[in-house]
Amino acid sequence: MRKKGRDLLAAFRQTFLTLQNMTPQAEAEAELNAASARYSYNPILRWNPQVEDYFIKAYGSLHFAQISKALTRPSCYSCIRVNTLKSTSDAVIEKLQEIMRKSGPQNDVVGINWKENKASNDIDLDMVEKQSSLQNESITKCQIPGLEYVVFVKGSGPHEIDYGYLPDKPPKEVLVSRKCAEAVLRGAQVYVPGTMACSSHVEEGDLVAVSVAVEQPFPDGGWGLGITRGTVLQGLPTDPYHFERNGLYIGQGTTMLSRAGIFRASQGIAVDMNNRVFKLPSFYDVLEGEIFLQNLPSIIAAHALDPQKGERILDMCAAPGGKTTAIAILMKDEGEVIAADRSHNKVIDIQKLAAELGLTCITTYKLDALKAVRKRNGSSDTTTLCCNKDNNDVVNQRSDSGPLGNGVSSTTIVGSNADTTFKENVSNEKANERTYTSKADIRKNTRRMRNGPGRNQSLGGRVENSKGFLPNSFDRVLLDAPCSALGLRPRLFAGEETIESLRNHGKYQRRMFDQAVQLVRPGGVLVYSTCTINPGENEALVRYALDTYKFLSLAPQHPRIGGAGLVGRCEFPDGYVEEWLKPGEEELVQRFDPSSQLDTIGFFIAKFAVGPKDNI
C-alpha cells in the first residue's frame, strides 16, 4: 500500500513539473486537445452495477462493452416497409431518390455489412454477395428472399463537428434532456419542452452547440438531473453538469427562438439541427400511406408468424400498430387481424395507421393482455363500447363498419396528437391513457391539422372494450410483450433498471404468455418477441414456456438473419437460478445483437408450434 502511494505521488510530481515547463504554444495545444475531447460525442452508458455484472456473465466482458457502445448510437440506416397494397419497392425507391435529389446529396453514407454477418445466420450466400454489391447506393432494396418490399436508406456518422471553440470563448450552448437528445440522434429537431438550460444572450438565429444532460446518481441511491429548467450556462467549470457533459455533444443548430422565447413558449422548435453527429434522413410526411418506418427485426417478427389469407390472428400488445399492419399486408388484407392494447389513445393510433395504409381487415379493441382469455359464461357478447355504462348493451363495431370502409368507426378524432406519438417511442403508458381532451389540446392540435387523408384526419374516436376471447379461437397469436426495452437505440442512460425490476419484467411476461398460449388453437402458431437484450425476458421465457406447456415446441423461423440464443443458466448471488436454452434450441430462436454487423436494435424472436392440448 505504501509503495502504491509513493508511485502515485511521484506521478503527480512529474505531471506538475511537466505543466510548469510547458511553453505557451504547448499549453495552447493542450487546451485545444482538451476542448476537442470535450466537444465530441463519446458517451459511456451507465448501468446499475448488479445489472452490469449480470450482463457480463451472459455475454462476456468484451462483448457486453461492444453492446453498450452500440446502444449509444443509432443504426447507420433507416429501414422502410413498403405498403405493397398501394405501391412497390421500385416505385418507392424512385420517388425517394427524386426527393433526395431535390433535398441535396447524401454524404458519407455507410451500409450494412452483410458479409461479416453471414457467419451468424443462414442467409443464402448469393443473396449476401448481391446485397453487399449494392452498398455504394444510398437507397437499396432488401435482397433477403421474401423481404423485397423492404427498402434501406443509408445514413452516416459519427461525424466530427467544429463547434467554433476558442480559448476563453466557449461556443453558445443549449442543454437538452436525455430523451430529447435520443430523439435528435434519430433525426428529430430540438423542441421547446426538451430544452433544460441555455447560454446567456442567445438570440434567434444564433449558432449553438447542443449538449445532453444525462441522469446522475443521487446520494439516496436514485437517479436524476438536479437542474432547474432555464439555468444559465456560462461555459465555465462552475456550470451545472459541466464535466458530465464532456463527450456528450450531439450537434450544432440554429436557434429558432431567443433564450427568453425558449423558456416562455410551451411548444415549437427551439433549435433547427443543421449539423448533426449522425445524419439520418427524415421521413416525416414523406409518401404517407405508401411507406412505414420500422426496425428490421420487427418486420422479421411479423414474417416469423407466417400469416395466411383468411386466418384469424391476434396481436396482443399491438400499439403502435407496426406489426399489426405488417401482418395485415402479408395477408393481402384478407382475413381478420385483431389488434388489442390496454391504452385508449394507443388503440386510436392503431386505427389511424390502419386507415392511412388503407387496411380494412384490422379490428381494434382496448384490452389488458393479462385478461385476454374470456371466461366461459355462456354469453356470446365479447365487446362493448367503452362509453357504455351498461355492459349488457352490446354494440359490436367491426373494423369494416365505418362509412368509408377504412377500418375504424365514424366519429371524428379531435385533439389526438398522433404526429408526436409516431415521431417518438413513448415509454410512459400512463401519460397516454387519459380519456379526455383539454381545450388547450384541441386548440394546439387544430393548428397542426393537415388537409387530406392521413393520421390527423382519420376517422374513429371511440374504441371498444373487450371482455377477452375464447380459448383456442385464433390461428396465430403474436405476443410482442412490453419489456425493459434495453435493446432500443440510441440510448444514453440505462441505470434505472435493477435486478429486481428485470425479474419483475420476466414475471409480467410469463403471465401474458399464459394468456396467449390458451388463445391459440391446436395446430396454430405463437410468436413471442421483445426489444431487450435481457436474457431473463428472452431465453428464460422460452425455457419457462417449454417446461410448463409440453404441447409447445420451438419452430424454425423464415427468414432467419438473427443470431443464436444463449445456452445455459445464470446463478445470482442471492441463490436465484435463471435457466436459459438447452443445447440444440439456440438455433431455433433469433437474437438480434445491436453490436453485430446487421446494426439493428436489440431484439429477440421465438416461434412456437402448438400441438394437441387434449391431455392438458
UniProtKB/TrEMBL annotation:
Single GO MF descriptor: RNA methyltransferase activity
Gene3D superfamilies: PUA domain (2.30.130.10), Vaccinia Virus protein VP39 (3.40.50.150)
This protein's record includes keyword Cell cycle: no
Annotated catalytic residues: 531
UniProt keyword annotation of Nucleotide-binding present: no
A biological process term (GO) from this entry: RNA methylation
Name of the protein described by the UniProt record: SAM-dependent MTase RsmB/NOP-type domain-containing protein
Organism: Gossypium mustelinum
